[in-house]
Design a protein that fits this description.
The structure holds two protein chains of two kinds. By secondary structure, chain A is mainly beta. In chain A, the strands form two sheets. In chain A, strands 1, 3, 4, 7, 8 and 9 form a six-stranded mixed sheet that branches. Chain A has a three-stranded antiparallel sheet with strand order 2-6-5, with no helix packed on it. In chain A, strand 3 and strand 4 form a beta hairpin. Chain A is globular and about 40 Å long. By secondary structure, chain B is mainly beta. In chain B, 0% of the residues lie in helices and 53% in strands. Chain B has no helices and eleven strands. In chain B, strands 2, 4, 5, 6, 9, 10 and 11 form a seven-stranded mixed sheet that branches. The N and C termini of chain B lie far apart (39 Å). Classes of the chains: A mainly beta, B mainly beta.
C-alpha cells in the first residue's frame, strides 16, 4: 500500500488559517469516512486531533477542523498559534482492512 | 484514560529478531484493537499491524513476511516480533489503541539495529 500524499510543508502567520491536504485513492480516503489527523511535536508521540473525517476528540480545540471531498481529505487550522507548529499526519482505513499514514506535513508559524 | 508503555531492548543486531512489549494500564485490553507503528529517525509514521484482543491480526503488506503481533490478555499486554532486521528497521516504535483511528499512544521506544 502506498502512503497518502501530503505537502511537505505549510506555513502561516499567527491568527491566519491554513489547510493541509491528504490525497489517497478510492481504496482508502475516498472509500470510507475513516480519515484521521495527528499532531506530533518533536520527540513526542502523535496526538489524535480529528477522527472520522471531521470529529474532534474531547480536549482538542475547535480551531482544528477536518473535511473530505472525493479522494482528498483536508485539515484546517484557524487562528494559527505558535504551539500549532508541529508535524501533522493523516491516516486512513483501507479496503484491505489495513491502515495507512500520510507522508507528513511540517506546519510552520511565521 | 488508558495508558500504554513500550518496553524491550534498545539495540538489536542485524539479522536477529526485534521483540517489544506494550503494557496497557488504566483500562482493559479486551474489546479493543491494538497496533504497532514505527517512525525512522527524521521520517514519517509507518503502520506495522494490529491485533484484536481475541488474537486476530492484520499486517502492513510490506512487512507481513517478517512481523508477528501477539496478545496476552492475562497480563494486559501485546507484543511485536520483527525478524531478520536490518539498519532500515531502526526507528522509534509506538504502540497504540486503534479502531479506525489511533486514539491512545505510548511514548515510543527507540530501537537501533547495529552490530
Amino acid at each position: 500500500q502506498s502512503a497518502l500524499t501530503q505537502p511537505a510543508s505549510v506555513s502561516g502567520s499567527p491568527g491566519q488559517s491554513i489547510t493541509v491536504s491528504c490525497t489517497g485513492t478510492s481504496s482508502d480516503v475516498g472509500g470510507y469516512d475513516y480519515v484521521s489527523w495527528y499532531q506530533q511535536h518533536p520527540g513526542k508521540a502523535p496526538r489524535l486531533m480529528i477522527y472520522e473525517v471531521g470529529n474532534r476528540p474531547s480536549g482538542v480545540s475547535n480551531r482544528f477542523s477536518g473535511s473530505k471531498s472525493g479522494n482528498t481529505a483536508s485539515l484546517t487550522i484557524s487562528g494559527l498559534q505558535a504551539d500549532d507548529e508541529a508535524d501533522y499526519y493523516c491516516s486512513s482505513y483501507t479496503t484491505s482492512s489495513t491502515l495507512v499514514f500520510g507522508t507528513g506535513t511540517k506546519v510552520t508559524v511565521l | 484514560q488508558v495508558q500504554l508503555q513500550e518496553s524491550g531492548p534498545g539495540l538489536v543486531k542485524p539479522s536477529e529478531t526485534l521483540s517489544l512489549t506494550c503494557t496497557v494500564s488504566s483500562g482493559s485490553i479486551s474489546s479493543y484493537y491494538w497496533s504497532w507503528i514505527r517512525q525512522p529517525p527524521g521520517k514519517g509514521l509507518e503502520w506495522i499491524g494490529y491485533i484484536f484482543f481475541s488474537g486476530s491480526t492484520n499486517y502492513n503488506p510490506s512487512l507481513r513476511s517478517r512481523v508477528t503481533i501477539s496478545v496476552d490478555t492475562s497480563k494486559n499486554q501485546f507484543s511485536l516480533k520483527l525478524s531478520s532486521v536490518t539498519a532500515a528497521d531502526t526507528a522509534v516504535y509506538f504502540c497504540a489503541r486503534v479502531s479506525h483511528y489511533f486514539d491512545s499512544w505510548g511514548q515510543g521506544t527507540l530501537v537501533t539495529v547495529s552490530s
